[in-house]
Amino acid sequence: MRIVLTGASGIAGSFIARACRAAGHDLTLLGVGDGWRLGQPADLRGHDALIHCAFAHVPGRYRGGEGCDPQGFRRANLDGSIRLFSQAADAGLSRILFLSSRAVHDGHPAGMILPDDLPPAPANLYGEVKALAEAHLAQSPLTTTAIRATGLYGPGKANKWRDLFAAHLAGRQAPSRIATELHVDDLAAAILLLLTHPAPPRTVNASDLLLDHRDLLAMVSELTGCRTPLPAPADSSGLRQLRCDALAAMGWRPGGTKRLRQTLPALVE
User: Fold this and answer.
1) Taking a C-beta distance cutoff of 8 angstroms, is the pair 104, 205 a contact?
2) What is the pTM of this model?
3) Any residues with CB less than 8 A from the CB of 87 and at least 6 apart, and which?
4) 85 within 8 A of 7, measured Cβ to Cβ
5) What confidence tens digit (pLDDT) does each residue in 91-111 have?
6) Other beta carbons within 10 Å of 69
């Protein structure tokens, strides 16, 4: 398949690019490293599918990623995405995959279970922009899917726990926290399934672990012999958790705790 991938230099995009190439797909990259920014015209002719991962934001922040320029944030990420979706249809592509976010559900009640087809309820500009882009995409004549992914982890630029681990190894006790997590390779595997599925849903969830920082840092201590006290167990009762029934029905099986343990040695410096 001939694929255009935006945001290939980002955390998700870099792993998706590697997976697509390993699967034998012909890949064209669009991103800042290639002289393209979200909102600019893109020549998509001659391709079969678009995977849209590009997102303009303040470094290190998604929620709150608008910084002090909410209008510019909306213009780049919403208007730019809508323009890109239209360009894909005009160029004759057959399929679009859009990397959305679980943030589209931040306004739902605490503790709610979130099925794949749940209508969004954003509570911040990040979630609102993703939800509005999803809504526009759903009107496309092409085969489209928005992937509502949870927080990602992995090696290299995907190592979001670098500072957490460094503080733990330096003897500083971490605060309690619990969150859902997904390995970047598992997200890439979901993308590959959706690329070739004959009739994918308009929206799918992508999540794996419910991970308490107490348990995560206990694994780090086990690896390193660190004796820093662990944080108290976090309260998970208010956490909104994604159900991933649609991807599971396609045969998707994320790596769970086993993959986390396999990845940790590369994350602990």
Assistant:
1) no
2) 0.95
3) 41, 42, 44
4) no
5) 999 999 999 999 999 999 999
6) 12
- Please give the average per-residue pLDDT across 211-238, as a whole number: 98
Q: Are 181 and 212 in contact (CB under 8 A)?
A: no
Strand 49-52, strand 2-6: pairing: parallel
- The residues pairing with 178 across neighbouring beta strands, listed in sequence order, are 212
Residues 190-215 as b or e (16 or more Cβ within 10 Å = b): bbbebbebeebbebbbbbbbebbbbb
Distance CA 169, CA 192 (A): 37
Q: How far is CA 22 from CA 50, 61, 124, 145, 232, in A?
A: 17, 30, 36, 22, 42
DSSP states along the chain: -EEEEE-TTSHHHHHHHHHHHHTT-EEEEESGGGT--TTS----TT-SEEEE-----STT-STTTTTT-HHHHHIIIIIHHHHHHHHHHHTT--EEEEE--GGGGTTSPTT-EE-TTPPP---SHHHHHHHHHHHHHHT-SSEEEEEEE-EEE-SGGG-TTHHHHHHHHTTPPPPP-EEEEEEHHHHHHHHHHHHH-SS--SEEEE--EEEEHHHHHHHHHHHH---PPPPPPPP-TT--EE--HHHHHTT----HHHHHHHHHHHH--
Statement: residue 23 has pLDDT above 70: yes
Alpha-carbon dihedral of residues 125, 129, 134, 139, nearest 10 degrees? 130
Token digits for 132?
């509005």
Per CATH, the number for 2-153+183-208+241-254 is 3.40.50.720
Residue 65 has what pLDDT? 62
